[in-house]
Structure to design on (266 residues):
């Protein structure tokens, strides 16, 4: 069953920089949460803290009552399986075919020797093909990953995360480098997984329109702190101006429209 994710007074400092500053959030099971903010707001650091790619300076993170920040060894590896991470850079092995890239998501279930040899069962291959089918990528299954478009590669990355059979998915700027058409396909894929599998999704976004269109809940960050936490309807243009300020909002709009071609509130 899905479980609650809780961040309690979580901070992460890099020397004098407070990348995440005393953040407390409770994410209900099955929510689709968009995290927005300018570059340097702390969005990526927060997701990396949840996945335990980095450790907090202070505070605690728990999932289903288990203290994530205390996990080590096998328990930590199991958490990273349960908490799938999707990156902006796709993190695929370009020389390998699409199907094998998806199957790499199953390596956490294998011993060392099996992992090194990348031996997968027929059941796992079926699981991988089913994941690709959900993301409209079966025709590309035997194609080298490096020959795909950016949008296709990101959907392969989502399929790889899906075969981990995670309890929660984190996506760090998954559409930042994509054109609007491919961005829509990626976001549609994440929403489908969220709704059909009841998997909690946290996604960092640069675009207000995308957050409003897809997310049950929006968290806005600035300088490492949570400045807004509510629904898309509550995130009015006036609230956005209060969060970013006129100068910050202008920079935010320029960055978004130059990379996504999407209009955001002025």
């Amino acid at each position: 069953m899905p479980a609650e994710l809780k961040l309690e007074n979580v901070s992460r400092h890099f020397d004098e920089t407070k990348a995440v500053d005393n953040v407390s959030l409770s994410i209900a099971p099955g929510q689709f949460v968009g995290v927005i903010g300018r570059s340097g707001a702390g969005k990526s650091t927060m997701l990396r803290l949840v996945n335990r790619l980095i450790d907090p300076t202070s505070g605690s993170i728990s999932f289903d009552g288990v203290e994530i920040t205390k996990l080590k060894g096998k328990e930590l590896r199991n958490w990273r399986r349960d908490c799938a991470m999707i990156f902006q850079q796709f993190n695929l092995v370009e020389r390998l075919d699409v199907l094998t890239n998806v199957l790499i998501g199953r390596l956490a279930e294998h011993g060392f020797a099996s992992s090194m040899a990348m031996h997968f069962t027929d059941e796992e291959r079926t699981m991988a093909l089913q994941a690709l089918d959900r993301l409209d990528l079966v025709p590309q299954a035997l194609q080298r990953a490096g020959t795909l478009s950016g949008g296709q590669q990101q959907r392969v990355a989502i399929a790889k995360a899906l075969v981990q059979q995670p309890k929660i998915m984190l996506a760090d700027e998954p559409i930042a480098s994509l054109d609007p058409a491919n961005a829509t396909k990626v976001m549609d894929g994440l929403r489908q997984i969220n709704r059909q599998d009841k998997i909690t999704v946290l996604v960092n976004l640069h675009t207000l329109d995308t957050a409003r269109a897809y997310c049950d809940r929006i968290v806005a960050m600035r300088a490492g702190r949570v400045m807004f936490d509510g629904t898309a309807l509550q995130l009015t243009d006036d609230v956005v101006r209060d969060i970013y300020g006129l100068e910050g909002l202008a920079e935010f709009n320029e960055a978004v429209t130059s990379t996504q071609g999407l209009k955001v509130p002025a």
About this structure: The first helix runs from residue 43 to 51. The mean pLDDT is 88. The chain has nine helices and ten strands.
